[in-house]
Amino acid sequence: MTSDSDQQNLRPPPHVLIFPMPVQGHLNPMLKLAHLLCLAEFHVTFIISDSNHRRLLQHTTASAAFSRYPGFQFRSLPDGLPDNHPRRGHGAMELMSSVANVTVPLFKKMMIQENFLASAARRSITCFVADGLLSFAPDFCEENGIPLICFRPATASYFWAIYRFPQLLQAQEIPFGGDMNISIFVKDFVGKSMDGLIESIPGMEGFLRRRDLPGFYRVDDINDPTLKGVVAAVRQINRAQAVILNSCEDLEGQIVAEMQNYVPRVFSIGPIHEQVKYRLTEKEAESSIITASLWAEDRSCIDWLDAQPPKSVIYVSFGSLTLLTREQVLEFLHGLLESSQRFLWVMRPDSVTGSNAEDPVPAELMERIKGKGLLVEWAPQEKVLNHPAVGGFMTHSGWNSTLESIAAGVPMICWPYLGDQQTNSRFVSEVWKIGLDIKDTCDRKIIEKAIRDEMEVRKDEFMERSTNLAKLVKRTISKGGSSYNNWDDLIQYIKSLVI
To answer: Per the database entry, which stretches of residues form a coiled coil (predicted)?
Structure first.
């Protein structure tokens, strides 16, 4: 005779379905979430685009790392775009549309045909962890009786600024303001009021300017389809049973508290890359942390860093989606060179647009760079940020990069590009005070001054604050910390969903 506990042990564990938007900034933290769930001995099905799956297999060890966990499986689906589509910059918006029109119908068909992924060894899905931009998820889950957990890869502050869209619109605190002659209103607005403070977002009064609102607000038309889609997806969050944030209460506690008025359960478990490291150490697991690089990493830059003095190098990377003009590349290069600081710049081969995009750096500048700087196409970013030679990070302020820099104790110079980056950069400069925000300008003199301020003039001030904040976020994912406890609570919550 078997006891109840024996029967419980014979039952399959919870089965979590994860579906990220197929861009690196969303794929990366959701792969790490999958890793954490595998460490909790859950079954995990991870939806990935065919294109990203091929690139993961080519450029990472993710497949080999996940092979340690028999309960994990990738399921790949087309994203509906041709192989040569850029899928970055403004092409990312086309990707979002194609996912909705092509990937989602194929996903729904697969789920029904395969009985919601049930098998002899695997129960039907226990819950659906959906990227916060997947607006189909609430209807899909309600129609099929599946608990929905929304994963927000960006900051709680960004979510909150989008969620408050109706109040911002009513208060005319965003550039178009509902005026009938929108294009004229925007020009006038930008000229006069972009530095005015926002008053309609509780928790961010006193420091958030109109200039710092999410990039999706920067449109000429109130009916812009991308803005409408993003707002609609965010406003549906109260239909989820729970929300997972890749953030922590020490960084955004007041905003998380505001969110909890609208969402029944909010689990702040970040920084998720540090949570994975800690849990691997705690379990004495052999597996290494899983990364989601979609480009080949040039590890020769680590050898170059090894030869540089401590805290002497500024690391420059504008992420996986940012596009630069050749003119902007030249402004940044001149600013870097005139600052007399050593630098390591990640310049993606597809990151420069316009004429001369394939050869953006003139030969005479390449000569000046030798010995002082290094250009690479992609780098192992976490390893770079934690290298003792790195003393600053010039960044697009993507949330993954920002969290990695915070955890590494590296001050930032922020040049945001889109989405949550406009808001993140303001938090870096005005709330956490661990860097400078130079948004909406690309001038070599301003760039040079920011670099000198961070690496020389105010170096000690920024390093002290960055070091203290790094210690704080490390504590939050350690045993007894808020993110550590929130992760354990999330695991128990998912277990409670098993019927």
So the answer is: none
The span from the CA of 300 to the CA of 457, in Å, is 30
The CATH number given to whatever domain includes residue 21 is 3.40.50.2000
State residue 271's pLDDT score. Answer: 96
* 123 lies in the same domain as 252: yes
Q: Cα separation of 218 and 14, whole Å? A: 42
pLDDT recorded at residue 183: 35
**373 falls within a domain:** yes
Tell me the pLDDT tens digit for each residue of 340-351: 999 999 998 888
Q: Tell me which residue has tokens 């001369």.
A: 356
* 363 and 394 both lie in a single domain: yes
Rg (Cα) of the chain, in Å, rounded? 23
pLDDT category at 211 given cuts 50, 70, 90 is very high
According to the model, what pLDDT value does residue 264 have?
77
Tell whether pTM > 0.90: yes
**Contact criterion met (CB below 8 Å) for 402 and 422:** no
Structural domain boundaries, residue 124: 13-159+227-288+478-496
Q: pLDDT of 157-195, one tens digit each? A: 999 999 999 999 888 888 654 333 333 334 444 444 788
Number of domains in the chain: 3
Best CA proximity match to 204, nearest among 266, 161, 163: 161
DSSP one-letter code for 45: E
Give the active site residues: 26, 131
DSSP 364-376: HHHHHHTTTEEEE
* 234 and 217 both lie in a single domain: no
Let me know if residue 328 belongs to a domain.
yes
